[in-house]
Design brief:
Number of helices: 2
Distance between the termini: 25 Å
Oligomer: single chain
Number of domains: 1
CATH architecture: Roll
Largest sheet: 4 strands, mixed
C-alpha cells in the first residue's frame, strides 16, 4: 500500500494555496512546513502528501508517466475534486467518468496542478 507521495513545484506559495484548498476538500490538512519552503499534508488515517522544492536545488519538473491518486468514497466526491482543481487553476486531463468495462465500476477523473503534476481522483466499485 502506498502511504505518501510528493510533487515538486517552482511556485511553492501558489502551490501551497492550491493544495491547501484541494486537499482540504478531502480531509487532508497541512501537517508540517518543509525546509524547501513546501508543505506536507496529512489525513487522519496517516496518509501523507507533500508539495516541495526539489532536494537537489534544481528546478522541479513533471515526471512523464507519474501520477498521484486519491481514493474517494463516492463519485460525487470525484466530481467535486475535479471541479475544484479546475477552479483553483489546474487543468483538465480527463473529465470524471467510467473507465474500462462498465461492469468494473472504475470511476476516475484526472487533472494537472499548477506545475503540471498529474493527479487522479477515483472511486472503485458501484455507487451505493
Amino acid at each position: 500500500m502506498i502511504s505518501y507521495g510528493t510533487v515538486g513545484s517552482n511556485r511553492l506559495e501558489e502551490a501551497k494555496a492550491f493544495y491547501d484548498r484541494l486537499l482540504g476538500s478531502i480531509g487532508m490538512k497541512p501537517y508540517v512546513e518543509h525546509p524547501s519552503g513546501g508543505r506536507l499534508y496529512a489525513s487522519e488515517d496517516g496518509r501523507l502528501f507533500g508539495v516541495l522544492g526539489p532536494f537537489d536545488g534544481k528546478p522541479a519538473t513533471v515526471g512523464n508517466g507519474s501520477m498521484h491518486g486519491f481514493a474517494m468514497d463516492s463519485r460525487a466526491k470525484v466530481d467535486a475534486f475535479h471541479k475544484l482543481a479546475l477552479e483553483l487553476g489546474g487543468s483538465d486531463e480527463g473529465a470524471p467518468g467510467l473507465r474500462g468495462p462498465e461492469e468494473m465500476n472504475l470511476y476516475f477523473a484526472y487533472v494537472r496542478d499548477l506545475d503540471g503534476n498529474k493527479l487522479c481522483a477515483y472511486k472503485i466499485g458501484p455507487e451505493v
